[in-house]
Each structure stands twice: as C-alpha cells, then as structure tokens.
Amino acid sequence: MGTGGAGISSATTGSSTTDGGTSGTTSGPSTTSGASTTSGTQGSTGGGTTTGGSGFGNTGSGGSGTAGTTTVTSSSTTGSGTDGSSTTGSSTTGGFEPLPKFVGNITTGWNASVDTNGRTFSTYWDQVTPENAGKWGSVQSNASSGFNWTTLDAVYEYAQEHGIIFKQHTFVWGSQQPGGNIGEAEVKKWMTEFCTRYPETRLIDVVNEPPPHTTPAYANAIGGGTNGNWQWIVNAFTWAREACPNAILILNDYNNIEWADQNQHFIDIVKTVQAAGAPIDAVGAQAHGLSGGVSTDTMKSLITKLHMDTGLPVYITEYDIDQADDGAQLQRYQQHMPFFLETEWIHGITIWGWIHGSTWVPNSGLIRNGTPRPAMTWLMEELGRPAP
Questions:
Q1: Which of 228, 267, 335, 338 is deepest in the core (most CB within 10 A)?
Q2: Tens digits of per-residue pLDDT, 221-238?
C-alpha cells in the first residue's frame, strides 16, 4: 500500500499501483543504535534489545509497557501479558524482548516526514512504518543500480532515537519494485543489505498483497508456483529469515477481513506455505475496507477465522477510516478499536496516515486543518496519550 495502494472493493481481483521509487547510490554506511544482529536461523541472538516505545498507559517516547511472558514455538514466539491497559501477547524473535501491543502510524508524504505539521510523532504513536520509503523500488530503482538509503535512514534513526518500534513495509510486492532482471541473488541481496543496515527492525511485511491482488514481475524467477505451491512466497520468507533472524515476518494483504472469499483464499495461501516450511510468524490485515459497507460483526468473524485457521497472530497493518463526517469516522473507530485492543492475538495496529491531505485515501486524516478530529481525541484518551 502507499501512494498507489490496493483497492478495497469486494472484487476478487485487485488494484493497480504507481511506481514511485527514487534512484541513487548508497550514501555511505549509517550508524545504528544497539548491537547488530547475527545471521542464521530463528532463535539466534540479536545482541541488544529494543523497547516498543510508549505503552498504552504512557505518553511521549522511550517507555514501554510490560510485555508479559513468552512461549517459544517452532518458527515464532508468542506471549501474553499487559502493556498498560490491555492484553498483548506479542511475538518476539532472536534476542529481543517481546513487543508490547502498539498503536502506530506511518510517515507523512514522499519525503517521509516523521515529526510533521508542528507535532512530535512519538508523542502519539509508538510504532512507525515508512509509507513508501521502505519499498524496494524506492531504495533501488534498478536491480543493477546502487541502493539509496537516505530517506529510510532518517526514519529508522528517528525510531531508534525515540524508542519506538520500526516496521518495514515491504520486501516483495507486485508494485514499486526495481526495474531490470531480478532473481534469487537480487532478492537475497536486498534483504541482507536492509537487515544489516537496520538490525533492530522488529516487523517486516515480507510479501505484500499476494495474487490475485498483485504479482511480482519476477515471481517465476524466484520459485514460481502461484495458485499452486506458492514456492516464491516460501522462498521469500526463507530468505527473509536468513537475512533478518530477529524480525517478525508477516504476510500482508487487503480484503482478508472484509470479504469471505478473499479471507479463505488468503488462509489457503498461508496454510500452503506453512506446510512447505515457510517461517511465517504473523499475518497482516490492511483493513482499508472497514470505512463503510462491512459490518463490525463480519470483520470480527473473518479476523477470528483468519487467526484460528492459521494459528498465527494478526496485525492490523493499514487502518484508515475514509469518512469526511467527523461523527461517522468516530463511530467506526469506536466500533473497531476496542476489539483490536482487547483481543489478545491481535498484536498491533498501524494507522495509515494521520494528517488530512497527506493520507492515501482523502478523508482518513485524524488532524484536519491543524485541529484534531473527534476520532483522534477519543483514541488518544483510550490509549492514555495526549490529544494534539
């Protein structure tokens, strides 16, 4: 998702996106806080730990709630506990502490601003996702060109400095990918270069919007198997685990908690790649389709099925309520957010933009003309964070 994004209609086939990568060469190595991770299989120690930013009961940056206890499973780690006001149970990998349940947001605009419009991001949000800066085509315009990390460096360094969670969006997608010839070597290099540079990345959308929504032009070159064994997805997760042993690896999609047929198709993909040994730790539900036309009961039923049938925790990855009317937007937030916050196996929520006029859909912003909308004020009160 991002500038082009994916559709939210009930149609099975999906969306076109725009390609908006920047080109350039690497501007030199960046420094990172904390120890660097080691390569290898899941469970290897990543050195230093990182906190999840502010818990629900905290404000500002740097603090974290209690994440609870942790139980290690074969390819992911689950837990339970409280992070200030609600049950979390977030995953962990490698040497990191388990994540508290978070409510985060994305960068603003193509320049990937974090603090913006006179407001400090980390006061309100304890997790950050680059909207476009982390897409492969934004870092490398062509598979034979150098990497340009400048914009992504700034976002990652902000997260480290302010003690908030950094989530990568995305490794492999059917849009905003480099031009040129891409195969196994290029995908592995991209993942390895990324995780070497940003070792404290806690969550990664490894594959975004699998078919029928989008298909990478290079899918057959990295294993193929679309509508069969999905080997290219299996390989993408396997290579991501090798490159990024300390990150929670997510398969992300849209319409999978809004429409029953797409929910089942997504579950079928997950179960197929799980059976093939893909180290998938969680599933992502973008949730763009919850702005209207999908009942809250339907959402609850489908997201529960998604969790129960896959056995995986769920992240709400791109939540935005496209309502110009303040009351209608607030009503949707009040219908959805308590369920997200109170459900143990929903491990985090990322809102897809907060500044009106700078969001992917036109009326989803939470601050309009410099004034917080009622949904923003209500949400901050629910989280124990200050309203702008």
A1: 267
A2: 999 999 999 999 999 999
Crossing angle of helices 184-197 and 231-243, in 10° steps, is 30
Q: Is the pLDDT of residue 148 over 50?
A: yes
Of the candidates 131, 186, 318, 344, the residue annotated as catalytic is: 318
Q: Which CATH superfamily is domain 69-383 in?
A: Glycosidases (3.20.20.80)
**DSSP, res 252:** E
**Phi and psi, residue 155, nearest 5°:** -70, -45
Answer whether 195's CB lies under 8 Å from 244's CB: yes
CA angle, residues 57, 58, 63, in degrees to nearest 5: 130
Catalytic pick from 131, 186, 200, 209? 209
Residue 39: pLDDT above 50? no
pTM for the model? 0.81
Q: Let me know if 318 is a catalytic residue.
A: yes
DSSP per residue over 43-106, as a string?
T---SS----S--TT--SSS------EEEE-SS-EEEE-BSSSSB------TTSPPPPPEEEEE
Residue in 183, 265, 267 with CA at minimum distance from that of residue 14: 265
Pairing of strands 282-285, 165-172: unpaired
Would you say 353 and 131 are in contact if contact means Cβ atoms under 8 Å apart? yes
Domain locations along the chain: 69-383
Quick one: tokens of 348?
A: 């985090």
Q: Which residue has the higher pLDDT, 257 or 19?
A: 257
Name the band, by pLDDT with cuts 50, 70 and 90, for residue 388: confident
